[in-house]
Amino acid sequence: MLHRTTTVTAFLAILIMLSGLTNTDRALGSDNTIENQWLSAQATTAPAGFELTARDGQKMVLRTSWKTDQAATARSEAAEHAVWGPGKRLVLNAADGATMRLTLFEKLPFAVVQDEWTNTSAEPQWLTRREFARFAIDLKKPAAELQAFGTFGVSPIKAQNNPGSYNHLALVEPNSRSGAVLAWLTHERGSGVFFYEANASGQVTVSTRQDYGHVRLPVGKRETSETLLIGLFDDARLGLESYADAVATHYQIKLPPEPTVYCTWYHAGASNEKQLKTQTDFAAEKLKPFGFSVVQIDDGWQDGQSNNGPRKVFVRHNPKGPYPNGMKATADYIRQHGFVAGIWYMPFAGTHDDPYFADKQDWFAQKDGKPFDTHWGGTCLDMTNPKARELTRLRTERICQDWGYHYIKIDGLWTGSATVHRYINEGYNEDNIGETTLHNSEMSNLEAYRAGLKTVRQAAGPETFILGCNTAQNMRTLGGSFGYVDAMRIGPDNGRKWSDITRGPFSGSNLYFLHRRVWYNDPDPIYVRASVPLEHARALVSWVTLAGQLHASSIYFAELPDERLDLLRRAMPSHTLRPRPVDLFERRIPRVWLLTDDRADSPRYVVGLFNWKEKEPVTIEEGFARIGLPEAKQYAAFDYWANRFLRLDGQQLTETLPAASCRILAIRPAVDRPQLISTSRHITQGVVDVVEERWDAEAKSLRGTSKVVGNDPYELRIVRPTDGTWAVASVSVGQADREAGVKIELVSATGDEQSVGWRVRIDSPTNREVQWAVGF
After folding, report:
1. What are the pLDDT digits (tens) for 71-80?
2. Coil, strand, or helix at residue 95?
3. How far is CA 628 from CA 254, 606, 624, in A?
4. Interval 245-264 mean pLDDT
């Protein structure tokens, strides 16, 4: 039997409000079936639970057995959500007053499931972890043909050794991509996890659990569970993306612009006053015109003793350290050059035997009567203790408001939940959550963590960009961070070796659906230094750029050969679209990505092909339809790194890639007139720089507007129709552009290129939007 628990009325009211539900819900009668355009649901009372079925004819079914030892009654009622619209709800009531609700809204492709129960015993009880429900899932395929997809990545479903997942789980038939998506919308008090298994007959069962830690539950109080979303999708990628959209709606997330960042850590530690000024000067001249925006100092600037991990006195700098004149002076210098000043710190960590903390021992979470220490993170500040939260507020205000750092990289996140370090953490990893004693015994470990994040968010101010670092230290911080950070390091530290370089693509692909919806995914820095093979550097830069993930670098810019520095320029700034991996459910790291730009009448497509194998070539074969391209007899293409035009025939893209390499192809269906296929400005070949393009049929003219960087030759790549009757008659730019010194010319073509396309070069002395025209 479940622990029967409760919470205060105010907290219950907040949960109802955040879920968009109102107190005006009205009973519809005794009917125990509801439906919307995606799903139908039926309540069962013996055993108590729900049966959920897709309405598209696939007859995928989920059955949930509500864990209660009592008989239940069922009713239906109306529901309303501010964004998801009207809906209908099924309510199960147990004899002891416990309830479970399943709601279908008209504009949400998920069933929303939540329950409430009361501590009906005569004394307070302690809630540690609680199985929420079990689902028997029938996807009309044997388990051997399915894949599980979670925070661990993709894994076959076997009778044994199935990894658990935090936050979300999808069960998918990889060829069709159809399947079930289960995900926790909220992580306010309980950390939501999933476990799955297959029996000998191939049936898959999923157990959903909420881990609270060690929470005191007073007598007679009512507790509301976290909110679970369940959906059945033709394409489970769309289900994962819809889940991320639902999280953004629930937490009212509105992301600031995505920055382009320099971090000192991977080549210089915290760097120093002199070197950072030189780096800032160089970036202002060579990189700022391309979109560079943040200079960030990492670990090593702060004061304190280093007994277990970094020093942790973050309210002052180390007077004998790399910034003897203080942190404000350096921030001022960075801002004077038009950049955002960034800095690293650990908001929830301390060092209990550092003299600074000598009078603060009761500010820490406790274990066995002593301050709780965890590897590298040091001693965990107790975020249920107002004094510890005040220290976090003081640290953050000092850094952001007093010194002027408005990009903060907050590390050691797991210390805010007073749990242990579980690096590298992907699938479920036991962390003994709840082994510590917290100041407020009625707050869970996740509640403590979110209270700490809220303190940081409020103290930093709305103008400060917050990067969380990182989920791989303890995956509890994944869902627990929703709504409070603008970006998240979604994987462990990377490095220059190929095995380390691929860590970012693995983690960033697994959580691609959160990017630009819930936060910006940060896969760790790009490596372009000369010691990294050029093909390796191109592959990493291209993946980060095409996937749109946070662009960060960590190298002394002036030491880079121009070819390597140019790799950084061609990845700045990040595009603002939402690309998608094609083979997400088929391999550990997807090899094919599609970026679709449909903002204009004639969409453009960029396909990225990646070979993540270090020592052997790979042949990639994908149908154009499966990639997501529109049907066409022929496609025009441009290979960015090979710098050449292509024509692609047939129904399938087949390319052989050398080991540890990539190809970035701009692709459009071939048409019977000239069309722009690519530009030289950016790896996405027009997505970030082409503001407008249009074909004037009467004038036989291709016209457009492009964002051109000053003193950076800009090339338009235009496809020649196959009939061979077209020739360029003129090239021109607008009068204002000519007066500003902008030049345009047709570049002479040689060899085979004469029959497939034209190149037009534009040179501008300054950054500007250039209006261009090519007449035929």
Report:
1. 789 999 999 9
2. coil
3. 28, 11, 6
4. 98
